[in-house]
Amino acid sequence: MPNRICLHRLLPGITALAAVLFPAVLCAASLRSAPNPWPVRHFESESGGFHVPFEYAKGHLFVTVNVNGNPGYVFLLDSGTSVDILDLTASRNLGIPIENIKRAKDLGLGGGKVEMAGARHLSLRVQDSRAQSELIGTSAAIVDLHGLAVVMHHRIDGILGYPLLRRFVMGINFESDELTLWPQRAFHYRGHGDVMQLAEQRDNVPAIPITVEAQNSGTRRAMVEIDTGSDASLLLYPRYAKQARIDEAFFSTKTKMKPGDGYGLGGLFPILPAIFASMTMGNVQVVHFMAFMMQTSPPVTRHKIAGVIGTTVLSSYKRVIFDVPHNQVIFELRPPPPLAQTARLGN
Predict the structure, then answer these.
(1) pTM confidence score
(2) Which residues contact 39 (CB under 8 A, 6 or more apart)?
């Protein structure tokens, strides 16, 4: 029987209200290692990667980026956004010309419409602790991110999206608050994490299969997006919840949970919370946790995607490695805490 690790924490979901009202427990089984079937050239050690510090604030990851040689721009790391984005105000301050303004499609969650323009011939670079730089992007969409920054209470000059996962193998270490970027052709995993296959990359999103169990119902299979831009534990789209016949859990009077609001690039959108019995992903099972369902159909449509899992779950791991070039994602559990010393009783 595998060892179980119980992580006691609050589940913030995607609203501040949820973080205050609903404590929960995350329980995770130990993980197995899995062989890598791809014959690739590999590093002798993981120190060969490029290491970048990040700030983990209120369930979101922020990286400092140099834009066209100008340092100090703060970018949100969001694997659920299909393009890299530069804020409209930042682009104006940098004197970057705006091309081809149009209405975006499937750019992010929210009830509003997002207008974007294109910018090419950019230089997006990150630096490590030794001030060495790495080029991570040469183009971006221009989007007004002011509203998102206000809601998130954090400066946002841009977003690093799915293109970063295509260019590099990316590891997110939640213990050291550090990103590691490896050249895709040179990565070979040697650790003992749980290696899961990613679904076909049809919509430029990293997605994995899971099983979920609502209270008093059987298990259901679902394909969910791994979204570093969301702090939700599990956010389900209403179409899937209805088809899977688990939408009743969100309307049950027994839950006594009030509706709230989530937010994305398209603005605010209503959500309903519910306590789910379990969610299983690979060799890990999360039990008695809070899930959310959008009350309206999402403006973003993903092929066969039921919803997203966010940083509330991801940060429970020591490290998550996105190896999109090899269609896999790797989850490494945190080491168990040391045994507590027992008090000596006097004679």
Answers:
(1) 0.82
(2) none
Cβ-based neighbours of 69, under 8 Å, separated by 6 or more: 123
Separation between Cα atoms, residue 207 and residue 227, nearest integer Å: 9
How far is Cα 283 from Cα 302, in angstroms, rounded to an integer?
Answer: 25
Q: Nearest CA to 264 among 30, 80, 100, 8?
A: 80
Q: What are phi and psi of 80, to 5 degrees?
A: -90, 0
- For residues 226 and 321, is the Cβ–Cβ distance under 8 A? no
Contact 1, 30 (CB under 8 A): no
- 88/159 Cα distance (integer angstroms): 12
80 and 229 Cβ atoms separated by less than 8 Å: yes
Segment of 13-17, 21-25, 76-80, 200-204 carrying the highest mean pLDDT: 76-80
The H or E element containing residue 92 is: helix 88-93
Q: Which domains does the chain carry?
A: 4-36+194-333 (2.40.70.10), 47-185 (2.40.70.10)
What is the pLDDT confidence band of residue 7, given thresholds at 50, 70 and 90? very low
Give, as one character, the DSSP assignment of residue 186. Answer: G
How far apart are the C-alpha atoms of 241 and 219, rounded to whole Å? 12
Consecutive H or E run containing 235: strand 235-236
Count of Cβ atoms closer than 10 Å to residue 210 Cβ: 23
pLDDT tens, position by position, 295-320: 876 555 567 899 999 999 999 999 99
Beta pairing class for 284-294 and 235-236? parallel
Q: What is the 3-state secondary structure (H, E, C) of 109-151?
A: CCCCCCEEEEECCCCEEEECCCCCEEEEECCEEEECCHHHHHH
Two tokens, residue 288: 């008695």
Query: What is the spatial distance between Cα 343 and Cα 334, in angstroms, rounded to a whole number?
Result: 26
- HSE (side-chain half, CA atoms, 13 Å) at 106: 11
DSSP output for 201-234? -SSS--EEEEEEEETTS-EEEEEEEE-TT---S-
